[in-house]
Amino acid sequence: MRWGVVTFPGSLDDHDALYAIDHVLGQTAIPLWHKERDLHGVDCVVLPGGFSYGDYLRCGALARFAPVMESVAGFARDGGLVFGICNGFQVLCEAGLLPGVLTRNRNLSFVCEYVHVRVESAATAFTRACGPGEILTLPIKHGEGCYVASEATLREIEEEGQVLLRYADAGGRVTEAANPNGSLHNIAGVMNRQRNVFGLMPHPEHAVEKALGGEDGLKLFRSIAASVAAGHTESVASVAPGP
Amino acid sequence: MLAKVYVTLKSGVLDPAGKAIQHSLHSLGFERVTDVRLGKYLEVWLDRGPRAEVEREVDEMCRKLLANGVIEDYRFELQD
Question: Rounded to a whole number, what is the distance in angstroms from the first to the last CA of chain B?
Answer without folding.
Answer: 5
